[in-house]
Amino acid sequence: RAQRQGSTLAPEVESGLNRALDVFLEHVDTEVREGVPVSRPFAEVLAERRDSFLDFVTSAEDAKTCADILRAVGTSEGVGEIETEQCREQEAEKEKDQEQEQEIEMERYADLAYQRDCEEMRRWPIATLAAPEELEKLGAVY
User: Fold this and answer.
1) Which residues contact 100 (CB under 8 A, 6 or more apart)?
2) Which end of the chain has less Cβ packing within 10 Å, N or C?
3) Distances (CA, A) of 21 to 1, 28, 74, 81
4) DSSP letters along 18-56, please?
5) Cα gap 88→12, rounded to integer Å
6) DSSP label at 126?
């Protein structure tokens, strides 16, 4: 906020205009904390911002509008938490399904490892057990 030289505005008017412009400025915190910051409800943050600019809430209608907005934000936050929980459950379910599919795929692979090409069962009559020469003709190992 730079003050203009030779301003024709009264100091209190210029101060009011600067204060009005401050509504659009937001402090950027560059502090690096040691731990994970605690998440605060958006309604709480919004109420804090409103309180810092209460001098712009001049009528009962303005106050009612602020209250309505805070109430709407407060009720919608609960919905967001429910949706987040549902998303977590869906992700966990997807993960579980993927693990099951991987296990099934591994079992199929293991089954294939013990399977030989062109090795089908060859049926032969039980009576050939009595004649070892017949078994040799069939290629059986006795």
Assistant:
1) none
2) C
3) 9, 16, 27, 34
4) HHHHHTT--PPP----SSPPPP--HHHHHHHHHHHTGGG
5) 54
6) G
